[in-house]
Amino acid sequence: EPPTSSSSSSETSTPHHLTQDELKKMAAYKAVELVKSGMILGLGTGSTSYYAVNRIGELLKNGTLKNIIGIPTSLKTKQQAISLGIPISDLDSYPVLDLSIDGADEVDPGLNLVKGRGGSLLREKMIEGASKKLVVIVDETKLVEKLGSSTGLAMPVEVVPFCWGYTAECLKRLFNGCEVKLRIGGDGKPFKTDNENYIVEMYFGEDIGDLNVASDKMHRIVGVVEHGMFIDMATTVIVAGERGITVKHK
Ligand code: 5RP
C-alpha cells in the first residue's frame, strides 16, 4: 500500500473525478519516462515517489529497463526497492547520480521546494544534491506562491536530539512570529528520522524573505542538521492536475 500523503487526504476528488492518488501516479509515471537503462537513480520518499519506485520496478521486471542502480533516500524506500528487486547502492559508491525522482510538499514559481514532511529531508538533500537532474513529481495542491506560506503546514527542520528545545528557541528568534514545534510520532514519542535525529516544525508568521539568507541563518545554528528548503535544486517539476500534466523546467 502507498504511504498516506503527509499533506492532505488521498480521497480528494478533482472535478474530473481523479483522486489525489491518481494524480500522484500520473506525475510519477510521467517522470519515469525520463529513466533510461544504465542510469544511477535517486529514489525519493513519500506517497508520490512510491508510485515512481513501483513503476521502475515494473519496467525492470518486464525488461524495458536494464542495469539501473537505485540510491534510496530513506529506509522505507530502501525496503520498497529491495522488495521490487531494484538493485540498490549508496552515495559512497556512486557520488554522482544521473537523475533523482522525488515528491515535494511545496513548490514555488522558481521551482524551490519545501520537503521533509515525510521526515527524509537530509538523505533526500544529500542524494538529490549529487544528482545531475532532480525531477519533482507533485499534484497541483503542492503549488504555492511563497514557500512556508501554506496555511497550517510547517517547514521541517532536522535537529540533533541533544537540547532540541534550545535549538528550537534559536530558530524561533530568527523569524518574527515564528512558531516552532517538535514533531511527535504515532507512538506519542518524538519522531525520529532515519538518522536518529528529531524534526522541528516551523510555522512562519510572516514571509520567510530571501530563501538563501534564511537558509544561511538556519545553518549557522549548531544544533540544526538540515532544513527542508530545497533552493535551486529541482531541474524539472511535473505537476498533475485536473487539466492533465504540466512540465515546468528550470
Ligand atoms: C519526504 C518528502 C516527500 O517527498 C514529501 O513529503 C512529499 O510527500 P508526498 O508525495 O507523500 O506528498 O519530502 O521527506
UniProtKB/TrEMBL annotation:
Q: List the Pfam families hit by this protein, alphabetically.
A: Rib_5-P_isom_A
Q: What is its EC number?
A: 5.3.1.6
- Is Isomerase one of the keywords UniProt gives this record? yes
Highest taxon listed in the record's lineage: Eukaryota
Q: What class of enzyme is it?
A: isomerase
Q: In which pathway does it act?
A: Carbohydrate degradation; pentose phosphate pathway; D-ribose 5-phosphate from D-ribulose 5-phosphate (non-oxidative stage): step 1/1
Query: What InterPro entries does its record include?
Result: NagB/RpiA_transferase-like, Ribose-5P_isomerase, Ribose5P_isomerase_typA_subgr, Ribose5P_isomerase_type_A
Gene3D superfamilies attached here? 3.30.70.260, 3.40.50.1360
Q: Catalytic activity, per the record?
A: aldehydo-D-ribose 5-phosphate = D-ribulose 5-phosphate
NCBIfam families xref list: PRK00702.1, rpiA
> What is the name listed in the Swiss-Prot or TrEMBL entry for this protein?
ribose-5-phosphate isomerase
